Amino acid sequence: MVDAATWAAVQSLAAEYWRRVDGLADAPVDALFIDAGWMDYGPIRCDGRAQIAKFYADRAVREAEARSTTRHLFSNLLIEPVTNGRVRVFSTVHVMAGKGDWPLPARAPSVVGDFEDVVVEAEPGVWRYEGRRARIVFVAEPVR
User: Fold this and answer.
1) Do residues 84 and 63 touch, judged by C-beta distance below 8 A?
2) What is the spatial distance between Cα 110 and Cα 117, in angstroms, rounded to a whole number?
3) Is residue 77 helix, strand or coil?
4) E-strand stretches of the chain
5) Mean pLDDT per 10-residue run, the chain (144 residues)?
6) Is 117 domain-assigned?
7) CATH code: domain of residue 39
8) Residue 124: Cβ within 10 Å count
């Protein structure tokens, strides 16, 4: 079991990650990873912050051009200690997505996935992703 300060810091890291992914914060997503960080989202693999930065910059352009909005909701957060300053994090993510002007029609989540992350204390009190792995469990039919 992790202490309360670690739990709060890791939960805040996850919340900030999804805020940035959804365009609700101006800060870059890759800054939440260590330099050698990685992402494995099935067909998408990024190694290092430069590749992660490019992936999210390209995603932002695609979403702006398509007038897309996403909201990622994470739940079932479980944090397991690995070693001092290193934890494994499990969560479930539900994705709501739509195109056009707000408010968008509500539909079932477009994707539900399980995440397994490795998070490290990059410096005292500052936690960052070493890696994130997603396994997609459900995918809705495309919105037309």
Assistant:
1) no
2) 22
3) strand
4) 33-41, 44-47, 68-83, 86-99, 111-123, 126-139
5) 96 98 97 98 96 97 96 98 97 96 92 98 97 96 66
6) yes
7) 3.10.450.50
8) 6
Residue with tokens 């037309």: 144
- Domain count along the chain: 1
Q: Which two tokens stand for residue 44?
A: 């998408």
Instruction: Look at residues 57, 18, 52, 9 and name the one whose alpha carbon lies nearest to residue 34.
Output: 52
pTM assigned to the model: 0.95
**Are 42 and 135 contacting, i.e. CB atoms less than 8 angstroms apart?**
yes
Token readout for 112 is: 């539900």
Closest CA to 35 of 116, 115, 120: 120
Q: Across the chain, which distance is largest between two alpha carbons, in Å?
A: 48
